[in-house]
Amino acid sequence: MPWRSILEIDPGPTVPLRQRIDGLFAQQRATWPALRDGEAALAHLQRKMLSTDSSTVIVQRNPARRGSTLAKTDAKAIAARACFLCPDKMPAEERGVAFEDFVVLPNPFPILPLHATIASRDHQSQRIMGRVDAYLRLARDLSPDLAALYNGPRCGASAPDHLHFQAAVASEIPILAQFPPKERRPHFAHTSRGRRMVVFAGADPARIQRDVDVTIAALAELDPSDAEPMLNLIARFDGRQYLVVLFPRAAHRPACYFQPEPDQILISPAILEMCGIVVATEEAHYSRVDDRVVEAIYEEVSLAGPQFERLIAALSIGLR
C-alpha cells in the first residue's frame, strides 16, 4: 500500500494539523477495530499514583504494550523483520494525515489518549540531529493540547531503522506540570527522582533549536559510540512558549528487566516513562513497582551524576 493510499482521507494542509488529527482519529475509530479496541482499553487499565512534594509518577498496567516492552532492537533483529512504519507493511485499515515529509498515524496500542506516531515518508534511521527544527514545528502544530515526543534509537524507539516522532495528550504527562511558566528560564538543569534532564523554554524556536542541537553535540562528546547519543525528548507549545525537556540516557533498560522471576520487572523506559508514565505489562510486575523501584530504574537509565555535571559544565559555555 503506497503513502497516497494511507493519505487518501487527508483534506490537505489548508486545514490545520490539529483539526485533521481529530478527523483522522474519528475516521479510524469507525473503520479500524484495533484502534477502537486499543482506545477503549485505556479506560480500564490499572493505575496507581506515586507522589512526592515535587513530582508525580503514574504507574500503568498496560498488557497491550508487551510488543513494545519486549521489542528486540539490535541490528540482527531489525534486519530480520519488516519495517512496520513503511506503508506496504501497515494494516489495510490504517490511514494518516500529512505533516511536512512525515505522516501522522494513530497508535493502536496507546499509552495516553490521542497517542500517535509521526513517521517519515522515507525509510531512514532514527536520528533527531538535523530535524530539531521540524520537531519544534510539529510541537507548534500539535498545540495547544498535544505534546511531541522523541525516542532515541538506543533508548526506546521500537523502530530505530525508521525516523519517527510521537504525540499524545499533554495534560496527562506528569513532567510538564513540574515547570510552570513563571519558573522557566531559557535553559537549565533539573533533577527529579533520579532523572537528570536539561530544560529549554521560550518563544523563539530558532534559539531553542540551537540550544537543543548544542546540547546533543555536547552529549555526543561524552558518548564513545558513533551512533546518536542516548536521549529522549518531549516538546510542547502552549500557544505562547515552547517547553522542551531533554533526558540524557546511560542505558536502554534497567537491571530488573533482565532478572529472573520473582525479581524481574519488565519496564523498558522510553520517553513517556521518563516523563512519569511508567508502563508495566504484567500484573505481578505492576504490583511490585513502588517509589523505590521507580527511582532505582530512573537512576540506572539516566546519565550518571559525574557525566551530567560534565555535560552541564560544557553547556555553560555553549549555551551563552
Provide a descriptive summary of the structure in words.
With 320 residues, this protein is an alpha+beta fold. The chain has eleven helices and twelve strands. The chain has helices spanning 3-6, 17-31, 33-42, 66-69, 75-80, 132-142, 205-222, 271-274, 283-288, 291-301, 305-318; strands at residues 46-51, 56-61, 97-99, 102-106, 116-120, 146-151, 164-169, 187-192, 195-202, 231-237, 242-248, 277-280. The strands form two sheets. A nine-stranded antiparallel beta sheet has the order 3-4-5-7-6-10-11-9-8. Strands 1-2-12 form a three-stranded mixed beta sheet. It is globular and about 50 Å long. The relative contact order is 0.15. The model has no long low-confidence stretch (mean pLDDT 94).
Task: Give a short overview.
This protein has 320 residues and is an alpha+beta fold. The chain has helices at residues 3-6, 17-31, 33-42, 66-69, 75-80, 132-142, 205-222, 271-274, 283-288, 291-301, 305-318; strands at 46-51, 56-61, 97-99, 102-106, 116-120, 146-151, 164-169, 187-192, 195-202, 231-237, 242-248, 277-280. A nine-stranded antiparallel beta sheet has the order 3-4-5-7-6-10-11-9-8. Strands 1-2-12 form a three-stranded mixed beta sheet.
Return Rg in Å: 19 Å
Q: How is the largest sheet built, in terms of strand order?
A: 3-4-5-7-6-10-11-9-8
Which spans of ≥5 residues are poorly predicted at pLDDT below 50? none
The helix/strand order is HHHEEHHEEEHEEEEHEEHEHHH
Oligomeric form of this entry? single chain
Structural class: alpha+beta
What percentage of residues falls in helices of 4 or more residues? 25-40%
Number of DSSP strands? Answer: 12
Number of helices: 11
Shape estimate: globular
**How much of the residues is beta strand, in percent?**
15-25%
End-to-end separation: 48 Å
Largest β sheet strand count, sense and barrel closure: 9 strands, antiparallel
In round numbers, the mean pLDDT is 94
